[in-house]
């Protein structure tokens, strides 16, 4: 293949990575932005979404598209429910102290991974794609499903943005983020907002996982990479800034695609980590973040 | 209407209120005065449930509200204008107003009535509230509290740092609300501003009410002001 088409292929692969990463990282960013919780279990929520998608694909009869659609609804709901429970039972009791929540979410990460190991087992398991078609470009054919992933992720992100900007629930979340005492003085049940935001963040990771699992297979340790990459993205983009998260996810995803294709995946991770180090040194609030208030 | 009885409250191990009692009736303006650090703001935070009380009761129309979680206090009809305004600074004027309306499910009719009191806000509905002038921010803080149609209004030093025209507007607003039966607790440092609206003045010293006096006929040079406020 010539250089041009090869680059196009690399960029398309990168776009898929970027789309899934943007979804996952926006969930992490949401929980941090509104609750100031650094959720180390975010990758485990991602993994849980994928593992549950496999179970759904086993239980729901009929065509793959049907069980996939079911997974897309059921998995984020279950994962979100678990997250809301973890928030109410654990994080709230720790008063959302930053250090304590980090330790607690590390614990949650191990609990979720061991639970997945017990119920799902140590093997990687494939989940069938809901549709199989190839888009034939002049130079190569490309998986239609992967393009669907990009479109799906973009739609979900658009929905998140619309919820935050144009609904009462979003207004309540933003007010809570700015000043939780004053929010309470105006009738906002901050506990419920936090549970909802934590569930929404985890649910976004689960949706990302359901979208990616037909490409990647489900495995109980698959949460590590998404967690690391999400942290990289939110640090570069600025913790809590949704716009920054999107831009950084595109940056990391596309460069990951290009560098992995032309050189090696490890080099892509090395460079991404290096960029994070540089951002932390020279612009600790991230590219789009505002300084911690 | 609202009655605080023998309240004790503080922050962690530090007790600030040492048996504070006072009450305010329908259509009454009670000014609360006292030196910095006397516990005036802490008293209002205790009413709002932001500071937990360790003893004493807070009673609104026969219902104890001190055991309520903080987010339920305002739903009983208490509007709060905190010291320093505490607007949702990154939100627009309209969004701040909307949050006030949501507190007790009020709609466009209430919003229009409140905006009629502060026409300057109506022209700035889309503006980010952090970028308003100090006086406009205070108007918005009061408007936000009025959007829940409060029975009781708590104002914590609303005239702090404002120019005379704005102080007059706030005074006129408080007097107008009094006419509609709102019970107001106004924490105020300026003697003239307090005397222009107050029915009674309560002096807070060291976390309790040292003295309550009728404002009518009180001279700005009365010994109470010199003893308790230090002017
Ligand atoms: N968040 C807080 N944490 C600890 N101490 C506080 C806090 N807020 C106020 N205080 C202390 O409580 C006392 C009363 O403060 P405050 O109620 O704000 O006084 P006032 O409003 O009368 O000036 C002061 O000694 C102050 O330092
Ligand atoms: Mg004060």
Largest Cβ-defined interface = A-B, 17 and 26 residues
Strand content of chain B: 25-35%
Oligomer: heterodimer
Number of strands of chain A: 2
Using only C-alpha atoms, the radius of gyration of chain B works out to 17 Å
Query: Which term fits the overall shape of chain A?
Result: globular
Strand content of chain A: under 5%
Radius of gyration of chain A (Å) = 19 Å
So how many helices of chain B?
9
Spans of chain A of at least 5 consecutive residues whose pLDDT stays below 50 are: none
End-to-end CA span of chain B: 31 Å
Please, how many domains of chain B?
Answer: 2
Write the layout of secondary structure elements.
The complex is a heterodimer of chains A (293) and B (231).
Chain A (H helix, E strand, L loop, with lengths): L2 H33 L6 H18 L4 H28 L6 H23 L13 E3 L4 E3 H23 L1 H11 L1 H6 L4 H27 L7 H14 L4 H21 L2 H18 L11
Antiparallel strand pairs in A: 1-2
Helix pairs in contact in A: 1-5, 1-8, 1-9, 1-10, 2-3, 2-4, 2-8, 2-9, 3-8, 5-6, 5-8, 9-10, 9-11, 10-11
Chain B lengths: L1 E10 L2 E11 L4 E5 L6 H8 L5 E8 L2 E2 L5 H4 L4 E4 L11 H11 L4 H10 L1 H4 L11 H13 L5 E5 L7 H16 L3 E5 L3 H7 L2 E6 L2 E7 L8 H6 L3
Parallel strand pairs in B: 3-8, 3-9, 6-7, 7-8
Antiparallel strand pairs in B: 1-2, 1-4, 4-5, 9-10
Helix pairs in contact in B: 3-6
Bound molecules: adenosine-5'-diphosphate (ADP) and magnesium ion (MG).
């Amino acid at each position: 293949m010539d250089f041009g088409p090869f680059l196009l292929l690399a960029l398309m692969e990168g776009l898929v990575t970027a789309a899934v990463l943007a979804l996952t990282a926006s969930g992490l960013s949401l929980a941090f932005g509104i609750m100031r919780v650094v959720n180390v279990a975010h990758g485990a929520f991602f993994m849980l979404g994928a593992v549950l998608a496999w179970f759904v694909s086993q239980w729901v009869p009929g065509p793959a598209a049907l069980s996939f659609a079911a997974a897309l609804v059921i998995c984020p709901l279950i994962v979100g429910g678990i997250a809301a429970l973890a928030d109410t039972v654990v994080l709230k009791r720790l008063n959302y102290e930053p250090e304590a929540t980090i330790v607690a979410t590390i614990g949650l990460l191990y609990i979720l991974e061991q639970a997945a190991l017990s119920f799902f087992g140590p093997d990687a398991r494939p989940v069938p794609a809901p549709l199989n078609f190839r888009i034939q470009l002049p130079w190569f054919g490309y998986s239609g499903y992967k393009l669907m992933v990009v479109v799906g992720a973009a739609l979900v992100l658009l929905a998140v943005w619309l919820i935050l900007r144009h609904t009462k629930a979003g207004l309540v979340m933003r007010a809570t983020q700015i000043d939780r005492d004053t929010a309470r003085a105006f009738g906002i049940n901050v506990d419920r907002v936090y549970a909802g935001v934590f569930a929404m963040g985890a649910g976004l990771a689960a949706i990302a996982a359901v979208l990616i699992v037909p490409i990647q297979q489900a495995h109980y340790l698959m949460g590590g990479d998404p967690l690391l990459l999400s942290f990289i993205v939110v640090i570069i983009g600025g913790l809590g800034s949704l716009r920054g998260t999107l831009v950084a996810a595109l940056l990391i995803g596309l460069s990951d695609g290009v560098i992995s294709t032309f050189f090696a995946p490890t080099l892509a991770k090395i460079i991404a980590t290096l960029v994070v180090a540089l951002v932390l040194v020279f612009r600790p609030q991230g590219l789009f973040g505002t300084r911690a208030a | 209407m609202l009655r605080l009885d023998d309240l004790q409250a503080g922050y962690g191990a530090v007790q600030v209120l040492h048996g504070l009692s006072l009450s305010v009736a329908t259509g009454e303006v009670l000014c609360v005065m006292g030196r910095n650090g006397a516990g005036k703001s802490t008293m209002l935070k205790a009413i709002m449930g932001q500071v937990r009380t360790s003893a004493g009761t807070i009673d609104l129309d026969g219902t104890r509200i001190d055991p309520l979680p903080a987010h339920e206090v305002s739903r009983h009809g208490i509007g709060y204008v905190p010291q320093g305004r505490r607007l949702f600074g990154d939100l627009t004027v309209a969004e701040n107003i909307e949050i006030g309306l949501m507190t007790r499910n009020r709609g466009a009719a209430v919003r229009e009535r409140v905006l009629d009191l502060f026409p300057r806000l109506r022209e700035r509905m889309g503006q980010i509230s952090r970028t308003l002038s100090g006086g406009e921010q205070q108007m918005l803080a009061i408007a936000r509290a009025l959007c829940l149609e409060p029975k009781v209004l708590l104002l914590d030093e609303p005239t702090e740092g404002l120019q005379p025209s704005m102080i007059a507007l706030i005074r006129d607003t408080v007097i107008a609300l009094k006419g509609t039966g709102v019970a107001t607790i106004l924490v105020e440092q300026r003697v003239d501003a307090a005397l222009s609206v107050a029915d009674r003045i309560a002096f807070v010293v060291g976390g309790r009410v040292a003295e309550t006096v009728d404002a009518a006929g009180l001279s700005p040079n009365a010994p109470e002001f010199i003893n308790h406020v230090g002017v």
